[in-house]
Specification:
With about 375 residues, the chain is an alpha/beta fold. It has helices spanning about 10-20, 45-50, 60-70, 125-135, 150-165, 185-200, 240-245, 290-305, 340-355, 360-370; strands at about 5, 30-35, 35-40, 60, 70-75, 75-80, 85-90, 95, 100, 105, 140-145, 170-175, 205, 210-215, 215-220, 225, 230-235, 235-240, 255, 265, 270, 275, 280, 280-285, 320-325, 330-335, 335-340. It folds into two domains: about 5-35 and about 75-105 and about 240-320, FAD/NAD(P)-binding domain, CATH 3.50.50; about 110-235, FAD/NAD(P)-binding domain (3-Layer(bba) Sandwich), CATH 3.50.50. It contains ten helices and 27 strands. β26 (about 330-335) and β27 (about 335-340) form a beta hairpin.
């Protein structure tokens, strides 16, 4: 009987555990994560803008362990000893014969390391609740979202929606170093996003960066000083510290460069945000869809490795993406079609319901958005 260890209980890690449960094998499976729950991160902004109950977005990893037959170890991974095939955590050393690294990504603070106080982030349910609670108490504050990518735009939109609903005097700005928000989008989609956020009353400052912060002030590279400010960091992401120390090739975000079968070496695979898979000339973006399918694929290949069979190449299928705004509209590409307005937002909501773990969570999401 082999020992399979999965690091990470997010979309890719749980998909791997689920994929292993689907297949007949006699291997012992252990999943390691620092959190007790798997968290549905795409809907975190709705905790702020749409009063979504935080509990709906968490799925107990102990419940998942009972459902899919793995052992759950709540611990922080410190390092992986590839020679001795041991995952070293802050609780225990966990030996493995096959390993799936699905530890996801987290906010990178490299650009603001010199700040006296770390800015707010939204990496978890607790982060979203903290931000919501501050936003509900504050009045006449200026919330500055640092970073105008998808996450920054969604977060700013939901903060602004909350302030408008509560008739608060708080303001929201987005600061983006590039010439546009969501620079990866088409020209038409960028125009839709920028017009939507500006019409909502969100100030957009492009072509500059947040240069520093103190107790309640933020100053930008262009000389602008913002008082009574709260900084929210949505600039970039990186992989977990233990991933940085692994002796494999990585991209600038620290994602592990896997081969066509998602493998790093014999019996070691990476899936989801922790792995960087190239499709043609480009690396796949971080997305729920790719995390799920890579988790399932890594599970299949790790069993093929144990059985001495050839590994199968991962062939990504991209159904599309949506940038949802708090006003119930958005834009995106669905099955190759460019969409704007209410429909992409509705599709985003329906897909989130379908992908949420646990029937009870799905039903609660349906009741929430039906209201």
């Amino acid at each position: 009987m082999g020992r399979i260890v999965i690091i990470g209980g997010g979309f890719a890690g749980l998909a791997a555990a689920e994929g292993l449960a689907w297949q007949r094998h006699s291997n012992a499976v252990t999943l390691i994560d620092t959190r007790a729950t798997s968290q549905f991160l795409p809907l975190l902004p709705d905790i702020i803008g749409h009063s979504l109950s935080p509990g709906i977005l968490g799925y107990s990893l102990r419940t998942a362990a009972l459902r899919w037959g793995f052992h759950f170890c709540q611990a922080r991974v410190i390092s992986v000893d590839l020679l001795r095939r041991i995952v070293i955590t802050d609780q225990e050393a966990v030996p493995y014969d096959g390993l799936i690294i699905a530890s996801g990504s987290e906010t990178s603070f490299k650009a603001c390391e010199s700040w006296p106080k770390r800015p707010l982030v939204m990496d978890s349910i607790d982060d979203a609740v903290r931000l919501r609670d501050l936003a509900e108490i504050d009045d006449n504050r200026h919330y500055v979202v640092c970073g105008g990518g998808y996450t920054g735009v969604e977060l700013a939109s939901n903060l602004n929606y909350l302030f408008k609903r509560r008739k608060s005097r708080n303001r929201v700005s987005i600061v983006e170093h590039g010439p546009n928000l969501c620079k990866a989008l088409s020209t038409k989609q960028i125009a839709f996003i920028e017009n939507s956020v500006r019409r909502a009353g969100i100030e957009v400052k492009v072509g500059t960066t947040v240069a520093g912060s103190d107790q309640d002030r933020i100053w930008l590279a262009d000389g602008t000083v913002i008082s009574q400010a709260r900084a929210i960091w949505a600039v970039g992401v990186c992989t977990a510290p233990f991933v940085h120390n692994l002796p494999f090739s990585k991209n600038r975000q620290g994602r592990l460069q896997v081969n066509s079968c998602l493998a790093l070496e014999n019996g070691v695979f990476a899936a989801g945000d922790a792995g960087g898979f190239r499709s043609g000339k480009d690396e796949l973006r971080m997305s729920v869809q790719f995390a799920l399918t890579q988790g399932w694929h890594a599970a299949n290949n790790i069993l093929r490795y144990f059985e001495g069979r050839d590994l199968l190449p991962y062939r990504p299928l991209d159904p599309g993406w949506v940038v949802p705004l708090a006003n119930g509209r958005g834009c995106g590409n669905i099955l190759g079609l460019e969409m704007f307005g209410r429909l992409p937002y509705v599709l985003h909501t329906l897909i989130c319901m379908a992908r949420s773990f646990g029937l009870e969570n799905r039903l609660q999401l349906a009741r929430h958005y039906w209201k």
